[in-house]
Amino acid sequence: MDDHTDKSSDADLYRDEQRQATLLTSALPYLRRYVGDTIVVKYGGSAMGSMQLSSAFGRDIALLKLVGINPIVVHGGGPQISAMLDKLKLPSRFIDGLRVTDKESIDIVEMVLCGSVNKQVAELINRAGALAVGISGKDGGLIKARKLTQRKHVLGTDDAKPDYGFVGEPAEIDPRVLFSLLGAGLTPVIAPIGYGEKGETFNINADTVAGAVAGSVNASRLLMLTDVPGVMDESGHLIPELTASEAQARIKNGTISGGMIPKVETCLEAVRAGADAAVILDGRVPHACLLELFTRKGSGTLIKVDAD
Ligand SMILES: Nc1ncnc2c1ncn2[C@@H]1O[C@H](COP(=O)(O)OP(=O)(O)O)[C@@H](O)[C@H]1O
Ligand SMILES: CC(=O)N[C@@H](CCC(=O)OP(=O)(O)O)C(=O)O
Fold this sequence. Notes:
The protein has 10 helices and 14 strands. It is an alpha/beta fold and about 300 residues long. The protein has one domain (about 35-305): 3-Layer(aba) Sandwich (Carbamate kinase), CATH 3.40.1160. Helix 4 packs across helix 5 (about 105-125). Ligand 2 binds next to helix 4 and strand 4.
């Protein structure tokens, strides 16, 4: 009896292993497509859910690295900053998805992003077996920023000029530190903080940083992981593909609002700058990055330029 049970469990095990081998080979065409490419992954603060989910994210990034793709991670941390400000009884105020950042809160923003979230994200990847190095835009002169005075008119919707305080936009990206890390076989993990000409610290929206970094390293793809399935329409249904003019109309009529605005703006800029694709996808789905890159049916919202 025991002997029989052992034999059938051996056979089950063998079948499972065969299935795994088949699965691995089914990724071959996608591997051929992406090996050697640089892929920028924006890991939103809202997508950093459970321990299980975040370790699946770390494993995805490690796997990409180990098969010869060059991932660069840019992380957010909006909810984590808000929680800390709340603890300190300081208010959080957003205008069209950007945090108004005063002198007092910029120190907290930097502390949370660089001191805490950055190291946690690098650790997720390290634990999965690929070496990651956490840096901010101040390291190696990566992100020189200037004060954001006016939203880029990518979509032509924002004519007002609110004062965002110590919020910056990338003025110059020096990707040398990224190339050195990638060249040494390491995975850069970037906190969205920039330095100003006069030594100021700027809080930059992580979506914007991801787009600027993707442009500077000629990334073939930009993946934006967030806490919704993608861009949703007015009835709450996923929009699988979105062009620039559709996006503009949806921001105008309020269907796209808050934190989704900088995401959509960034993706549009990335594809306009030559990225093959920019996708907003659900970071709450385990292995969202692998599903997007290594399966036929992508998920989320693919952002496209308008057809001429
Ligand atoms: N049309 C839309 N489709 C999906 N999400 C939207 C839309 N408009 C606004 N949002 C909001 O944008 C949020 C994602 O942005 P944000 O909170 O900044 O995420 P992240 O931390 O990942 O950057 C969603 O949780 C949702 O509340
Ligand atoms: C200027 C600005 O809004 N900066 C963001 C930086 C973090 C971020 O972008 O985090 P998510 O990606 O999780 O939203 C903030 O202070 O919340």
